[in-house]
Design brief:
80% of the residues lie in helices and 0% in strands. By secondary structure, it is mostly helical.
Amino acid sequence: MASRQLAWTVTAQYLNVLKLESVHRISLIAQASSEAHLREGQVGLQQGTISKLDATRNQLEVANARLQVEQASASATVARLQLATMLGVSPEFTATAPAPAPVASPSLAALIDLAMQHRPELVAAARSEEHTSELQS
């Protein structure tokens, strides 16, 4: 029972690390987007197409995005350290997810065969079509 609990806890923590690393990556993308919006806003301010208030809002968005990046980075670091502690390994330990196995694409013929196995109405329609073509020949 204890080994199951340990396995569950380690798995949950590992998935938490993956989640928080994803949040960090997303926050970096959001920060880059906010910075691009800020640059566009600065050009608009210089050209007089946006107000000073809008430009200030853009600056606030960038500041908030930077804060979110820092918070996401800190959360991911804490989660990695918690996982390392739980595993009893060095804090420099990095757990990496295995590469997903390639998914073989079934051929069209295999998909049709599969549909025929599970959908009797398709089999009946195919037989009806064959019968009609035989009568026309």
